[in-house]
Amino acid sequence: MFADAIKLVSQFTKHLIIFQRDLNGDVTGRVGTFIILNKDGWCLTAAHLLKPIPDFAAKKEKADEYYRRRDAIAADPKLQPNVRQRRLGQLPKPADALTHQLYTWNFQVAPGFHVKADPFRDLALVQLQPEIAANIDTFPTFRNPELELQPGTSLCRFGFPFPEIDAKFHEAENRFELTDHSQIVPFPNEGIMTRNIRLTSPDGTLQGDYLETSSPGLPGQSGGPIFDRFGTICGLQSRTLHLPLGFALDPADSAKIHNKGIDAQFMNVGIGPNSKTIVPFLEKHKIMVNIAPVLRDVSGNKDGAAA
Question: Residue 194's Cα: distance from chain center in Å?
């Protein structure tokens, strides 16, 4: 059902990697997904994937402060060698301190990129260099926000889950290296749209419209498209909720299950802002994208080719 749609969305759906190096020299990599919107290099992703950017300054300062204290101890001529060694060994390393961080976009390094984010609705626009779109002929079409997506509509999600990032940092060259590219492969999973959800911020000032799917979003698919069988973008993967099933169990059976390491049972569902939230966000920032037309039958009722 989704073979042609997946072929379509794979043209403009790419992966991002967030590399980080801590004080111990350990390197980690986190994978997400983004959508290339147009030839100008504007891209759409989930805002939570960009949270490490503002967080990095504080974590880098913790690393720098550690180095300053370490160097001061090492350079103190008043300390005996054994005292110096003991103090260096006792100097605590902040667990969340980072020395380096880097984002790559489809294996490309952007020297600087402009971000417009809406953290509550988990949407973010990133302007990369136009070269990111150089080889793309087809850009996404978004579902018309005038059309209500009906429960039971078949949907598919696309992204880059299950990555095992094998990376290292070359200190002399001040750069990260991804040593194995083979783990970063696209993966679709399908389901149906189950519910339309409207969320409101705690202070009541913000609202957002979301869709829920019967299949979960997987780590690495955040920021990726949720689309129908025509490849029309209906939503953007944001998070996965774990809904308790609430099955009543006999107390004796419950104890047996608990002893086997099985507790409460859940259904995992995907959540993402839908086109009623995405399209106004794009329009607010004057980003030109394709919007599916609203079709009307002879009676004047609205319909969409992507319904």
Answer: 22
